Amino acid sequence: MLTFYTAGESHGRGVFAFLDGVPAGLKLERDLIDADLARRQMGYGRGGRMKIEQDRVDCLSGVRGGMTLGSPILLAVWNRDFENWRSFMDPWEIQPGRELFTPRPGHADLAGAVRFGHTDLRNVLERASARETAGRVAAGGVLRCFLKALGLEVISWVTQIGDVRYEGGFDRARRDASSVFCPDPGTTKKMEQAIDAVMQAGDTLGGEFTVLLRGLPAGIGSYTQWDQRLDTIIAGHLMSIPAIKAVQIGLGTASAAAPGSRLHDAILPGGTRGSNNAGGMEGGVSNGEDITVTCTMKPIPTLIKGLASIDIRDGSQAAARYERSDYCAVPAASVVGEAMLMIAVSKAILDSFPLPNMTALLAAFDQHGSRH
Ligand code: EPS
């Protein structure tokens, strides 16, 4: 029912998101979408590009007077940097001078060039760049408005940068006050120090973040077919974020060590649970508890001292070329994680309630919720 795609190159005209299947009559809050775009640009350890851009959503179709029409929605986040790149990125006529021949280990450069037969790696990296995630966050912002209308909320926080971990829970004011979106000031300081150390060394750092959805009633998703399972849909959406190497639901990998008698969430009188190790899903169906997902991000592959690589023109040994990049983008990735969870859950909801307008959808959703 819900279709979502992005288009756009990192230094092209802009990044675009296409959404089809959003019900008519949804009030969009532009400030809410722009706030997500602004948060994606933040985070200690970002590179120079974020000083150039001031991402704002522009809506090219499907919305009139702030209200969705039920027709396809096309969103744009324009690239300010295009003006500096026009002569290299123009669709019709380009100048030489920004070609790349030494792929970065860990980036899409080499494998992507093999896939499409490119001889200039710029043709890969322009689209493989994490700049594309601005389009995801713009689309996620539309669906934040959709989920908000249904009484649902998605939040995230950073749980690890390098080897500095945070084990506590969520606190919005503290997360928003943190330069790394970690709800603890002491841990934030340690995370900043870890990022400072890699910045001085010309290196990069990965980490981990948690995304949580509150308010989803039981019964969304299905156990009857593998691709309708809510965990299939959620894991795929989050795994698709650039640099994500692992997605865990609920207790995740820690589920291996606990005996079943301690792992599973006992059903208490009235159907409530005392714990949520399952992460809000059982059998691929939501069970009424918070949906909890934790994502692991690898360090960004663009290093100032390029790793050993080759020149693809002759296969000779050459260091990977440095392109302007971030030192740590885990805080930004947590905002992208929220967007992808919102897209995944909206898809699952609209699969269960394929209704063309918000009035019909809200009535069906409320009736379903009141039964569980
Ligand atoms: C990014 C924009 C990019 C990079 C970064 C994320 O802009 P530029 O290439 O002009 O500096 O800063 O992309 C990567 C880390 C990557 O590996 O592609 C953004 O908008 O988030």
Write a short abstract of this structure.
This protein has 372 residues and is of the alpha+beta class.
Written overview of the protein:
- With 372 residues, the protein is α+β, with helices and mostly antiparallel strands.
- The protein contains twelve helices and 15 strands.
- The protein has helices spanning 30-40, 49-52, 82-89, 109-116, 122-128, 133-149, 172-177, 185-201, 230-239, 260-263, 330-352, 358-370; strands at residues 3-8, 14-20, 58-61, 63-64, 67-68, 73-78, 153-161, 164-165, 207-214, 244-249, 281-282, 285-286, 291-297, 308-310, 317-319.
- The strands form five sheets. It has a five-stranded antiparallel β-sheet with strand order 8-7-9-13-10. A four-stranded antiparallel β-sheet has the order 1-2-6-3, covered by helices on one side. The protein has a two-stranded antiparallel ribbon with strand order 4-5.
- The relative contact order is 0.18.
- The model has no long low-confidence stretch (mean pLDDT 97).
- It binds ligand EPS.
- The site of ligand EPS has 17 residues, from helix 6.
Walk me through the topology.
Elements: E1 3-8, E2 14-20, H1 30-40, H2 49-52, E3 58-61, E4 63-64, E5 67-68, E6 73-78, H3 82-89, H4 109-116, H5 122-128, H6 133-149, E7 153-161, E8 164-165, H7 172-177, H8 185-201, E9 207-214, H9 230-239, E10 244-249, H10 260-263, E11 281-282, E12 285-286, E13 291-297, E14 308-310, E15 317-319, H11 330-352, H12 358-370
Antiparallel strand pairs: 1-2, 2-6, 3-6, 4-5, 7-8, 7-9, 9-13, 10-13, 11-12, 14-15
Helix pairs in contact: 1-6, 1-11, 4-5, 6-11, 9-11
Bound molecules: ligand EPS.
